Amino acid sequence: MDIVVVTTVIASLFFVIGAAEPLADRLRLPYSVILAVLGILIGVGAAFFLATDLTDALNPVASAILGLPIRSNVFIYVFLPTLLFQATIGMNLRRMLDDWVPILVLAVVAVVVATLSVGYALYWASALPLVACLLIGSIVSTTDPSAVVSIFRSISAPRRLARIIEGESLLNDAAAIALFGLFMGYVMLGVPDPELGDALSRFPVLIVGGAITGWVAARVAVWIMALFNRFAMAQISISVALPYLAFVLAEQTVGASGVIAVVAAGLTLNLTGPGRMPPQAWAYLREVWDLLAHWAGALIFILAALLIPRLLEEVRLSDIGLIGVVVLAAIAARSVILFVLLPLMARLRVSPPVERPYRVAILWGGLRGAVTLALALAVTESFRVPVEVKRVVGILATGFTLFTLIVQGTTLRRVIGWLGLDRLSPLDEALSRQVVAVALQTVREDVSRTTENYELTREIVRSEAKRFAERLDVSVKSAEDSEDILDRDRITLGLIALAGHERDTVLARVRERTVSARMSERLLSDADRLIEGARSGGRSGYQRAARGIVAYGRGFRLAVALHNRLRVSLPLARMTADRFEHLLSQRLILRDLGAFIDGRIRRIHGRRVADLLHELLARRTEAVETALEGLRLQYPGYAEELERRFIRRTALRLEEREYDTMREDGLIGAEVHTALMEGLSRRRAGAEDRPRLDIALRRDELIREFPFFANLDAGALRRLGRALKTRYVNPGDVILSRDGVGKRVFFIASGAVELESAGQSWLLGRGEMFGQMAILMRSPRRVEVRAIAPTTLLILDEDRFRRLLRRSEPIRQAVRESAKKRGIDPDALLSDSPLSDTETSG
Questions:
Q1: Which fold would CATH assign to domain 72-419?
Q2: Half-sphere exposure of 493 toward its Cβ, with a 13 Å CA cutoff?
């Protein structure tokens, strides 16, 4: 084939890709539908020009189009890893992990249900063997969410809903391809009716093997990329090699799922890459992969669509009936997931509730695309698959894909309009008015500053300023006088705006490099949680999200358990260091938000809303300070190291700005500027490294903060440090419940707790203890103890506490004072004989 003709065809396909996006926007149709239609037209046109006698001028181009080496291996080994890898590194993984239960269940269960539903429906309606029917079911069980997600974003649907759909689609592609490989093996071996249990039992092996392979490959790649920290192009090149190597290793060496390996590699790079690469290099890497995935996605759609006329050449009337069976079975399976499983998961509180209109839109938006066609092509190419099975698989998969693209895709936006999802709610209407008012105020200030720098005609400036001021007054009055917005909605709007500005502040700090790339992803996720919390739950939702930001997560508690029980300290040290840096960055960001409340929100919603937002912001700041103080007590030197690191990073950023200014002013040349920036990069590499936290040697320093232990010698302090256990408690957690048997004493290292008994309550803070009364009185507790702030506790068992009590006069004095507050005789309490069970204990 002439290389010039092939180059012309490929260049023309890229021209089609470029023209398809604006065409889709103009026709208000999904981009994938336009690509598929253009691909079909190109394929039909090429076949027409070869068959007609009208002209021979286009025959070389038509022959090149139809002769393109389009094979299933090209789709699976070249395009598919690119699409999956970009999706994993492009997603907000921290926010996706919040919904990992519904995503995982929907992805895996949806694939299995769709495969079984379509497979058994075809088995009953056709003469195909069961394994071939299940193979078809696995092929059509993947979904392409790009159309419905893009429309959801354009109509401001809940972000959480879009994330669940994207996560489900990513994983169900992997699960479906794993099932496809399983059933394809049975078809090629000639097993007509495999044991379904045996077939599905191999499914987890494929997934686990692929996940481990992808994780190992990504960890090695990240290690190598960290060695090339000054060479962004080298890091990007390694990232391009990673998904393909992971895919081939899993498929050809391990015998596991290559698709799962690619997904695992992408997720691992997403989690570890930002902390091991410079921020600018990570941004470049994401941009490169966005472009690669855009090209790969478009090419796979067009090239697959070129095959559709060929796959439908031998269609029969009976095949149309089978296509109808596949359509009904697939829609029924999707309906079970959306209208039975999803509401059940919401009722069990493992999934967010999804309103019925959105579920209908998801059902109708379950388009199939290039992955389905690529898998069908793999079947038709295999010489070990029976001819009739190849014909039916190609026709049914192609027909079903055409139905979803042409029927569902072209009517999806109309269905969304019929459901009323394209209309803004009153709250969103008010939010849009607020955005316009705030934007116009900012524009007015910027225009005023700009016009002062230019010699413009004063009359023209006054005339335009008057017109702009009139528009601004109308917008502000519209935002202030919205009668359909309640006061609580104004608070919600203010909180959404505040969280949005927090997100912008994080991005600004990242650009200045005063916040590390490791923390930027987490801080942006925090801002997204606050926005979604405010949108869904107003003030209470915002506060709940704010508490979750400083709370101790399950992973932290697991790391504590590993440290205390197995003496495995690395996870706890890493998470504690992350928490330290996160809280310091949070404090830095929160201090920039007060000016926004006074400068923007107060103008729109008035003093009362602004004052309430200041109060909520003060509570958040106090919670962050409390949590940070708890860490300072335990690791006093580490906070100082992090603050020194912050100062060094800020100084380097200012130094870089000065060099850039001198270069722009012509004070230094390009060579001098390059040399200065290279030296700056070397110093910055050292400043980027976070100091190591040693958690093993800080317990003694923490114990010395307690006045109870002031008179203990060094040996006793070391023994006590080994005996004390650490426990981290979130606000609202119950530490001790009523009627329990006292077996431990708790010392408050940081935070505060509330004790409640018989309708009375009192607070205890840092340096105090509780739980000792129940031990000394040998009676059930009559109090409930609950944390009211992020709290760090040191716990001592009963035997060691009694020995410590005999040795420490400060502890005996504290026990006496606690007993007097409860009306108990301290001398009787400290004697060897137990008190009566009728006395109040704590």
A1: Na+/H+ antiporter like fold (1.20.1530)
A2: 29
